[in-house]
Specification:
The complex is a heterodimer of chains A (85) and B (190).
Chain A (H helix, E strand, L loop, with lengths): L6 H24 L4 H25 L26
Helix pairs in contact in A: 1-2
Chain B lengths: L18 H7 L1 H4 L4 H11 L6 H29 L4 H6 L3 H7 L24 H25 L3 H36 L2
Helix pairs in contact in B: 1-4, 3-4, 3-7, 4-8, 7-8
The complex binds fe (ii) ion.
């Protein structure tokens, strides 16, 4: 059984995961030998990929240029755009 | 938001250091009809486009122009890499060298730095889309001038790819103009 998903909620989860990954990315650039940060980065990245997949299946592509599928029809140009809040 | 992909959109190779060619190619980095101007023009105009298709077109082409900016940077970087000072001087790039060494900076072929006044965001989608079609034609013409000036076939190959992209962008902007024109016409009838 699939739990009902709210777009806003899923997006917030993606934003949180991606920000954590981004910030760890910056940290790892100057601390590439930090094994704990690396493990965190990989764990968060995996969770991010999963969450993105769930979002895209329900609400359409997050990325352009072939990084997201658009099944059935071209959903890339669906509203809203990120600045339309 | 944006994510970076660690690859070029089109492979870049140069036959060797060539400051004379770098001096003119750099205009597609920081000149009036260059890739920085193109990218920032589309990415800032997209907010006030009236249809979702137009927002998508400007987002995607504006982002592709960033990739072109990187290609031009890769050309300039490699054309300057290891260039002897005598050649830099002979190419009339000594002024550039004084300020930037062999780094990549936003100037035109005469060393004039990029300014935001090169671009416009009018808030009028018809004006903006015509502006963009003109920008693509000016970029195409610039690439043709650069191809005429190029004495490095490997650079010419990259310039040809970039020229072709301007032709495609012009086409997409023309279609977008029609879509937006139809949308605005329909809105006027009530
Ligand atoms: Fe273009």
């Amino acid at each position: 059984m699939r739990t009902p998903i709210n777009r806003e909620e899923l997006l917030l989860r993606i934003q949180a995961l991606e920000f954590a990954a981004l910030d760890l990315n910056l940290y790892l650039n100057t601390h590439p030998g930090d094994a704990r940060a690396l493990a965190d980065f990989n764990q968060i990245s995996a969770a991010l990929a999963q969450t993105r997949k769930a979002y895209e299946q329900a609400f359409g592509p997050l990325m352009n240029y072939g990084h997201s599928l658009s099944c059935g029809r071209w959903a890339w140009i669906d509203e809203p755009w990120p600045w339309e809040v | 938001m944006w994510a970076y992909e660690k690859k070029l959109e089109y492979p870049v190779k140069v036959s060797g250091p060539n400051p004379k060619l770098a001096k003119v190619v750099v205009t597609q980095y920081g000149g009036p009809d260059g890739e920085l101007a193109a990218s920032l023009r589309y990415l800032t105009q997209r907010y006030t486009m009236p249809t979702s298709q137009a927002k998508g077109v400007l987002t995607d082409i504006g982002t592709e122009e960033l990739a072109h900016m990187e290609i031009v940077a890769a050309l300039v970087y490699n054309l300057l890499k290891g260039a002897p000072l005598s050649e830099i001087k002979a190419a009339g790039m000594d002024g550039y060298y004084a300020d930037h060494d062999r780094s990549v900076y936003f100037v035109n072929g005469d060393g004039v730095p990029w300014v935001a006044a090169y671009i416009q965001s009018k808030g009028d989608p018809i004006a903006d889309l015509h502006d963009n079609m003109a920008a693509e034609e000016k970029a195409r013409a610039t690439y043709e001038h650069l191809i005429n000036l190029s004495d490095d076939p490997q650079v010419t190959d990259v310039l040809r790819f970039l020229r072709e992209r301007e032709v495609v962008h012009f086409q997409r902007f023309g279609e977008t103009l029609n879509i937006v024109q139809d949308f605005l016409d329909r809105r006027k009838v009530w």
